[in-house]
Design brief:
Length: 161
């Protein structure tokens, strides 16, 4: 009986260590994912941005109290990507996180993003947004499955993260 308990404890410890071991690798992969999102926004690279999205993705807007396919939002956002790519405007996005949960194939990321843009008229906008994102890893690539833009935030909240 003691041997069985010792083996059960040892097996459980090994399984927990195995689950915990990939965390730095998973976070490094997710950091690379968010860096690619930022790069594609700044470059106006719509195809690359679209490739970060799951085809069944959902966008939720807390301020508008709506939920819709992410594909619909992509259609709306494409004109800004095209304007950025042509140089008619400048855009960038930066992410900060307060909580990062997941395993080797799923991630739930909570935090804020700052979307900044300079239009052709020279007008600057800075939108601080509290958000949650649900991602899945398929065929070795992370894709956003759900983006919940919860509410507007402030610069102070963003900087505190």
């Amino acid at each position: 009986m003691k041997t069985l308990l010792a083996l059960t404890f040892l097996l459980s410890s090994c399984l927990l260590a195995e689950e915990a071991a990939p965390e730095p690798t998973r976070l490094k992969q997710l950091d690379a994912y968010w860096a690619e999102v930022s790069r594609s926004v700044g470059a106006g690279d719509f195809a690359a941005y679209e490739a970060t999205c799951h085809p069944e993705g959902v966008l939720i807007s807390g301020s508008k109290k709506t939920s819709s396919p992410l594909a619909d939002a992509l259609k709306r956002w494409k004109k800004e990507f095209d304007a950025t790519k042509s140089g008619a405007m400048k855009a960038r996005v930066e992410f900060k996180f307060s909580q990062r949960l997941g395993d080797v194939t799923t991630a739930h990321e909570t935090g804020m993003f700052l979307y900044s843009a300079v239009g052709s008229d020279g007008k600057e906008t800075h939108d601080y947004v509290h958000f949650e994102a649900l991602l899945v890893k398929r065929d070795g690539r992370w894709k956003i499955l759900m983006e919940y833009q919860k509410s507007k935030g402030t610069r102070a909240e963003f900087e505190a993260l």
